[in-house]
Amino acid sequence: MHSTLPVHGAPVTGWHEVWSADTLDVRRDGLYLARLTQVRSCMRKAGVPALLIVDPNNIFYATGARNMMVFCLRAPTRYLLVLESGPTVLYEYGGAEHLAIGLPTIDHIKPSIAVSYLSSAGLPGDACERFAREITGTLRDLDPAIDTLGVDRFPFAATDALRRQGLHLRDADEVFVPARAVKLPIEIPYVRESMRRVLEGVDRLEGAIEPGRTEAQVWAEFWFDLMQKDGQYVTTRLFQSGPHTFPYFQECGPRVMQRGDLVCLDTDAIGYEGYASDLSRSFLCGDAPPSPVQRQLYQVARDQIETNAALLRPGMAFREFAERAWACPETYRPCRYGLIGHGIGLAGEFPNIPHHDPALPYPEIGQIEPGMVICLESYIGSPEAGQGIKLENQYLVHDNGVECLSPYAWDRRLGN
Predict the structure, then answer these.
(1) pLDDT beyond 60 at 8
(2) What is the per-residue pLDDT for 75?
(3) Which of 20, 38, 211, 324 is buried deepest, with most CB atoms within 10 A?
(4) pTM of this prediction?
């Protein structure tokens, strides 16, 4: 079901390499070290001498240390201290300290102090004071001159306790947003491999679409394929059919798919080595011919993706890109997707590229840069027909052009 979509420009950065599974395994430590070096470089530029991070994606980006990623997205149970000119200290979930042994990015491993209400037996204040004393003491042992700390998603009781210890806190996004926005050359083969495996899962899902099966049954085929190929998780349940395709953002469930239904998938998959692979495709269920309305919606959505992909190029300001982007017909504007596109890496990342509104100042400053991986989005829905089409592609920006990383075929029945 795969086909190669057009590539415009000349991708000349050397990010075209595809590595074997053995090479990916051998070079994994180099990937982690390169990302940690990138973090420290961005710390220097931002003037942040130390970071204390609890977001598992930030921890994984900086070190390659991974443990219960989905659980840790909601529970602050492990965290990482990074000094710009010193060591890293991983405070790991109790009993799991062995998981990070051997990582070249981790200098010390200690058990964490849980700082949530639940994990502290209803006494987060006491736990946060012990946590703050531990962090401050470690900082003073390593570098007594440090009084500024970049932090991310800690509970307010924890950040208040750190301030009471005399630390000045800054937002760790000042470091991680620029660090993760532009991919390092060593990251790209892992991005490619993640997408290759996710596309195989999409192929399996498409082959399972048939009348009489529920949305959840078919979506489970994608999950199964992702998991058996060392994928991590899917961040949304965006797989819907028939009347559930309008309006968008309806989650997959027990609806039984019918002959002639439109079926929409947004992968939102965290795949191999934690890299996100994000594409959307819409299909037709069963052997019924598409209706004229279905073909029209599909063609409009394709026009949006292909027009914007042809515009995408390095050096273009986000505002210029938005001003020149495909103009949504008024008929579909009230229900269109909220962004033109977004960056992606280990998750959705910088930039978010909003639509241009001539009545408002454009909110996104900056430009498209080589090494960015950007997803272009389209949702075209009809209130009258009660149906919609979702399409999305993922692109790598080279020095001299743009490459589509998600070459999965369009549905030939819905559009040429």
Answers:
(1) no
(2) 86
(3) 38
(4) 0.94
91: which 2 tokens? Answer: 């405070």
- Alpha helices, H only, 209-313: 215-228, 292-311
Among candidates 185, 198, 179, 177, which has minimal Cα distance to 398?
185
Q: How many residues does the chain have?
A: 416
User: How many C-alpha atoms does 80 have within 13 Å on its Cβ side?
Assistant: 29
282 pLDDT more than 80? yes
What is the rounded distance in angstroms from the CA atom of residue 381 to the CA atom of residue 304?
13
pLDDT at 55: 96
8 Å CB contact between 251 and 241: no
Q: Give the whole-angstrom CA distance, residue 163 versus residue 9.
A: 51
What's the token pair of residue 407? 């070459």
pLDDT for the residue 16: 76
Q: Does residue 95 contact residue 114 with C-beta atoms inside 8 Å?
A: no
Helix (H, G, I), strand (E, B) or coil at 45: helix
| Residue 239, strand partner residues | 265
Cα first-last separation, the chain: 14
Contact between 223 and 365 under an 8 Å Cβ cutoff? The reply is no
Report which of 251, 299, 291, 255 is spatially closest to residue 384, judged by C-alpha positions.
Answer: 291
Q: Going by C-beta distance under 8 Å and a sequence separation of 6 or more, which residues neighbour residue 367?
A: 315, 316, 317, 318
Contact 251, 236 (CB under 8 A): yes
If we measure between CA atoms, which residue out of 127, 123, 151, 387 comes closest to residue 247?
387
Residues 6+ apart with CB under 8 A from 135: 52, 81, 149, 162, 165
What does the pLDDT read at residue 15?
67
b/e 341-360 (16+ beta carbons within 10 angstroms → b): bbbbbbbebbbebbbbeeee
Over residues 208-230, the mean pLDDT reads: 98
Q: What is the pLDDT at residue 270? A: 97
Q: How confident is the model at residue 1 (pLDDT cuts 50, 70, 90)?
A: very low
Q: How far is CA 45 from the centre of its chain?
A: 24
